[in-house]
Write a structure and sequence with these properties.
Elements lengths: L1 E7 L5 E10 L2 E4 L12 E7 L10 E4 L2 E4 L4 E10 L18 E5 L29 E6 L15 E7 L2 H7 L7 E5 L14 E8 L4 E12 L11 E5 L4 H10 L2
Antiparallel strand pairs: 1-2, 1-4, 2-3, 3-8, 4-7, 5-6, 7-8, 9-10, 9-12, 10-11, 11-14, 12-13, 13-14
């Protein structure tokens, strides 16, 4: 998983959103996380291999021995590509349509045990297919309360259940087929700073001996005061954008 940081006018980088490494030079995130204007003075940086932002490197004790991961990697972004039909609308009944963007890194990433890309799902045009009842993971460094600032220093994780479109529309009548819903228990959900991060699930491969993470959604639209009520959140449905993702990467290598 990636941590997105921004700096404006030479100021110190600060955490703004999450993202997902999908290629050695490309990170997937939400369009509402990135500057809209081409002439914006805001610089974006992607941090990879991070867990606790207050420590470098991240270490833990096991069997009386301290084991440390390699230091995190900070990568500059040299290209931001938002979906051309992105609609930004923070208002009652907001839809935040096509809330997806790609970030091209200045240099390729060297994959390691601690820095790995997430898999893209197969493209699917079935409007009613929503991973219903799948157990999904979300993770991020977002705020732990809607009144707090600066986010969590440690990457946190929660488990959500994907909902059918019918159940989702009970809470969000205007949801589109390019979006999906997932919800969890009270006190488990996304908050400010988690936007752009992945909604993930695991699938077995290699005769079921190994498992890989796939990205189903991108954190897009939650509740105004963070999602601690158990009410579902809205995610950009990645499978509908796989052709756009692959085409954009191919045209901008």
């Amino acid at each position: 998983m990636a941590l997105l940081r921004k700096s404006k006018d030479g100021e110190q980088y600060t955490h703004v959103c999450g993202g997902s490494l999908i290629h050695e030079r490309w990170v997937l995130t939400a369009a509402h996380c990135v500057p809209i204007r081409e002439d914006s003075q805001t610089l974006l940086q992607v941090r990879l291999g991070e867990w606790n932002t207050t420590n470098s490197p991240d270490c833990q004790w096991s069997g009386g021995e301290e084991i440390c991961a390699p230091p995190h990697i900070d990568m500059n972004v040299d290209r931001i590509i938002m979906h051309e039909e992105y609609v930004k609308e923070f208002a009652p009944n907001a839809k935040l349509l096509n809330d997806i963007a790609l970030l091209r890194l200045q240099q390729p990433v060297n994959f390691s045990e601690f820095v790995q890309p997430i898999c893209l799902p197969s493209s699917n045009d079935d409007d009613e297919y929503t991973y219903a009842d799948y157990a999904m993971d979300i993770a991020g460094w977002g705020n732990t309360e809607h009144t707090s600032f600066g986010g969590s220093p440690i990457k946190l994780r929660a488990v959500l259940n994907a909902l059918s479109m019918a159940n989702c529309r009970k809470n969000y009548p205007h949801i589109m087929s390019s979006q999906l819903c997932a919800g969890g228990e009270t006190m488990a959900g996304t908050c400010h700073g988690d936007s752009g991060g992945p909604l993930m699930y695991q699938l077995a491969y290699d005769d079921k001996e190994n498992r890989a993470y796939y990205i189903a959604g991108i954190v897009s639209l939650g509740l105004a005061f963070c999602n601690y009520s158990g009410q579902p959140m809205i995610f950009t449905r990645v499978e509908q954008y796989v052709p756009w993702i692959m085409g954009t990467i191919s045209a901008n290598m």
